[in-house]
Design brief:
Layout (H helix, E strand, L loop, with lengths): L1 H5 L11 E9 L3 H11 L3 E2 L14 H24 L15 H62 L3 H12 L7 E9 L3 H11 L4 E7 L4 E2 L6 E2 L1 E9 L1 H13 L3 E3 L5 H57 L3 E3 L4 E9 L3 H14 L7 E5 L15 H11 L10 H15 L3 H16 L1 H5 L5 H8 L1 H18 L15 E3 L12 E3 L19 H34 L3 H32 L5 H10 L14 H20 L1 H23 L2 H10 L1 H9 L2 H25 L2 H25 L4 H39 L26
Antiparallel strand pairs: 1-10, 1-11, 2-10, 3-7, 3-8, 4-7, 5-6, 9-10, 12-13
Helix pairs in contact: 2-8, 2-9, 3-4, 3-8, 4-8, 6-7, 10-11, 11-15, 11-24, 11-25, 12-15, 16-17, 16-23, 16-24, 17-19, 17-23, 20-23, 24-25
Length: 817
Amino acid sequence: MNRMKDLPPMHLLRSEQMILVQLIIPVESAHDTVTYLAHLGLLQFKDLNSGKSAFQRTYANQVKRCGEMARKLRYFKDQTTKAGIQLAARPTTDKDFDLEELEVKFSEFEAELREIEVNSEKLNRRYNELTEFQTVLHKAGRFFNSHQSEANGRSRFVEDSDGEGAVLLEQEMQTDPAKQGRLGYITGLVAKSKSAAFERILFRATRGNLLFKQDVISGHVTDSTTGEKVEKAVFVIFFSGDRAQSKISKICEAFGASRYPFPEDVSMQRQMLGEVAERLTELRTTLDAGNLHRDAVLKTIAYQLEFWISLVQREKAVYHTLNMLSIDITRKCLVAEAWCPLSASNQIQEALQRAAFDSNSQVGAVFHELQSKDLPPTYFKTNKFSGAFQDIVDAYGVGRYQEANPAVFTIITFPFLFAVMFGDWAHGIALLMASLYLILREKRLGSKKLGDIMEMAFGGRYIILLMSIFSIYTGFVYNEFFSVPFSLFGSSAYKCRELSCSDATTTGLLKSPSYTYPFGVDPVWHGSRSELPFLNSLKMKMSIVLGVIHMMLGIGLSYFNAKFFNNPLDIWYQFVPQVLFLGAMFGYLSLLIIIKWCSGSQADLYHVMIYMFLSPTADLGENSLFWGQRGIQVMLVLIAVVSVPWMLFPKPFILRKRHLEKLQGRAYGILGGTDLDSIDLDQEHEHDEEQLEEFEFGEIFVHQMIHTIEFVLGAVSNTASYLRLWALSLAHAQLSSVFYERVLLLAWSYQSIIIRLIGCLVFASATIGVLLVMETLSAFLHALRLHWVEFQNKFYQGDGYKFSPFSFSALNSDDDL
């Protein structure tokens, strides 16, 4: 253990060493101190006022004031956006500011803008009304005189005629003699979408005793009430009687129709048109002047708006953090507790000294370390390259404090396992070009708002880079370029007995005894009838070997975790039996695969592994790969059988024995000491007493039994899970072969340029859509599952919590204030 402590720190293998510190800050320098610490961004404050509500905290009024200022800034931003005014690219960064002065300035700006907005709304409403009135005067004047005489004639005809309508009209007029009057009319505008229903309701309400005329206005009209652009129609209604006028007025109100007066005299009409036009000109001038004044105010605001938003965000965050500190009224100071990296203690103390000096405080802040039994947060120093791989691990669960970090190995194993399933160096080059585009333009793309999918791809650009590089490598191993083989590393090691090798089998080929294809799969296998059985056997066995190595790596990391945390029980009763069990079964299978590859034996490994457990002492016959294999298999079976109770029984009973010894030793200590010694012993072992009371042998035994069963069954299921490497690699190769042979070659067999062009387009679309998008996502998810389930569950707890320091850099101006 001491040797491990003397090794240089590995910041990505183990999380940063954290300490709990206490800060005693004078009240007069509290604001500046927290601000300087936020600039540093290395302290995660604990809430020491968790029992108080937000309104009971010390700086609740300041937080409320910042919230009100944020509301005004949101209003300013909305107004500048509506006016189409761009915010300043380089906002002012002056540090000398007064929050109260800014609050007064914001109030003045808001009051001025509100007043301008109210006045502008009134003027716009009046302008729209006059515009509608002008339209009514133009439209109604064209047919008013001609239709007025027609309406009078129709009114007399109705009065003199016999029939149900005339009788009803006569009865209606007799009930109220005051209704008997001359012909009346109403003019106005109604929405075009409501005009048909409007006319129908009017007809029914007056029993047809009216004349309704309308003319649709070309183009849209700004509604005087809502301010929206709508299609409207000018209407003129001729009627007779006060009751009809009352009904028509109510219907107009119900349909939102605007009514305007219209003089009968032509000279009055001309005079009114002139007055309306003059009034519209005056209003237009007034509105333009108001808009210029509003734009001038908004430009003044926009020059510093980004700075103000950032400033208010920071002030609100500072006061929110100050509310997490407990106040000591007698000492006139604030007490804070926070987690920080041990390596950052000097930087924090320097920031405290600068804050005390700049705030002219007579007393500096006190910084000292606290001893705590609480689990510290997990903090890794990452960069834009390693951060993406760390996010993959954290998506499963944040690691426990200082346990082995899988991200160190995920940087290599994740893209490699992906490439095993995606092996084609043509597709790898396509992914490489895409990743290089994202990397070379990362500054420009990082400052833009991208879509969800593009944002995900941009965040994992370095993962895609490594995946593409490994895919090119495995593509060379599989010798596949869009499923087409190439003799890149020399000529084939096989020669044909016949003139053509297209239908030849492996028995029809002669292998050169002194020559082997230098790298990867020999190109002669592609296109032969033995291609699929050969590649199936190769990739399936390779998947098992890679899976066992990957799982052994996970079990090996559990040893380093147990060694680091000084837990010998996990070494002897978890790591050792797990290595023996997995090695005795699937480690041995991997060894047989390698021996078979090297020796060229025809042994049936399925038969060997099955009868290794069903009949360990049976003769292997032609399936024997080396001398003494039967005896070794008997020994491996015994080791596998012994490993199961080795994992299950010793650890719970040893923990129970230790627990009883602690209880017995504590009882003897209390009996053998004085009362004062007993009190000191109680205080000294208070935390141990809680642990002793929480010890339950039954729960520990059941937990160990579940863990043992999970590992034994998982050893089989996890190994089988790695066969997905074989399945997806085969599927990818077959899809690529289908697209190449059934699309591209088929189209190229025609002499037509159009057919060839269509074939190329279909091939490119299928390759990009299926192989480079869907297959990439599929292989990515399967590689993710292999790391989360098969690899990380061997050693990774993932029950920690992330280090979230208070930092101004974490604030986003696009977030809500």
